[in-house]
Amino acid sequence: MVIDFRVRPPYRGFLEMGIFTKYVVPQKDPRKLSAFEMGRAGVPSCEQRSMDLFMKEMDEAGVEACVVMGRKNKGQAINAGNILPEDLYELANSHPGRFIPFAGIDPNDAGARKEVEYVAGELGFKGISMDPGWCEPCMYADDERILSICETAEQLGLIVTLTASGVAGPDLTYADPLVIQRVAKKFPRLKIVVAHACWPFVPQMLGVAMTCPNIYLVPDVYLYTDNMPMSDLYVTAANGYLKYRTLFASTYPVGGLKQSIEKWSAKGFTQESLQLTLHDNAAGLLGL
After folding, report:
1. Distances in Å between the alpha carbon of 28 and those of 25, 37, 251, 255?
2. pLDDT, tens digit, for every residue of 16-69?
3. Are 180 and 194 in contact (CB under 8 A)?
4. Residue 9 contacts residue 63 (beta carbons within 8 Å)
5. What pLDDT does residue 37 have?
6. For the residues of 193-256, what is the DSSP string, one character each?
7. Angle CA(246)–CA(86)–CA(66) in degrees, nearest 5?
8. Strands of the sheet with 159-163, listed across from one edge
9. Is 127 in contact with 166 (CB distance < 8 Å)?
């Protein structure tokens, strides 16, 4: 069985996100395909905007559970979305054991810390998600507003997911692993999941993860996409010192569940690391 650590299913506010609508209408001109569309098979649940089909795809792909990453910010330029934590809570309760909600937090919101306390205490969430480079205004992950939220999350025993990559911000400086390192060093008891794993700064991120045992990497599409430069470095690390801190994610709807798992599994992991990355590491981190 598989635990997918980063999905945004066809449910309520997710359907309004640019990341979702982009993949509903396939790009027909091969010269205009994004890196993530190359070789991507059709995904019926995405195309038909259907939760019933998504559940079927989960079953067919052997996905035991998905971590549902909420998002809350005002980055209208990318249709970043605003998914209410109550919607995530309802989704998880309507499919017991299948969805693990992480509340999207907007660091620009003056009430962000209280919302973290609310989703942890009232809703029982295991984690929160922030996209620093897509906030409006955008910020770096070591911004004082984010550090304040991380402090609260550490006190409450929550997992914090930070998105950092070459596409997650106005320029490449928002993917700098040194920024993530500063957060991890400041809060050594805080479990930090780095979505997109700071690509294209792969060697640097792997170096940061070596020095910060509280960092977990989710390379998602940057690992399993065909011919993605430096994807092999993530695999090499996951077969060695990062075997217990690398997590599989499809980043649905960017990738379909079945195809993402198949491509991930064909990347050269040892059998031990494949089991760890596809399931056991996530189960341990989430306390399942």
Report:
1. 9, 10, 22, 17
2. 887 777 776 666 777 777 777 777 888 999 989 999 999 999 999 999 999 999
3. yes
4. no
5. 76
6. EEEGGGTT-HHHHHHHHHH-TTEEEE-THHHHSTT-TTHHHHHHHHTTTTTTSB-----BTSS-
7. 25
8. 2-7, 63-69, 99-104, 127-130, 159-163, 192-195, 215-218
9. no
The CA-based angle 138-77-42, given to 5 degrees, is 115
* Torsion region of 252: left, alpha or beta (phi above 0 gives left; psi -120 to 50 gives alpha): beta
Six token digits for residue 126: 């295991």
Among 125, 6, 4, CA closest to 58: 4
The structure's pTM equals 0.94
β-bridge mates for residue 215, sequence order: 192
Residues 6+ apart with CB under 8 A from 111: none
DSSP string, 35-94: TTTTTPPP-HHHHTT-HHHHHHHHHHHTEEEEEEE--B---GGGT--B--HHHHHHHHHH
pLDDT 10s digits, 99-149: 999 999 999 999 999 999 999 999 999 999 999 998 888 999 999 999 999
Read off the DSSP letter of residue 125. Answer: -
d(C-alpha 104, C-alpha 82), whole Å: 8
Q: What is the DSSP letter of 14?
A: G
- Cβ proximity of 135 and 73 under 8 Å: yes
Q: How far apart are CA 153 and CA 123, in angstroms?
A: 14
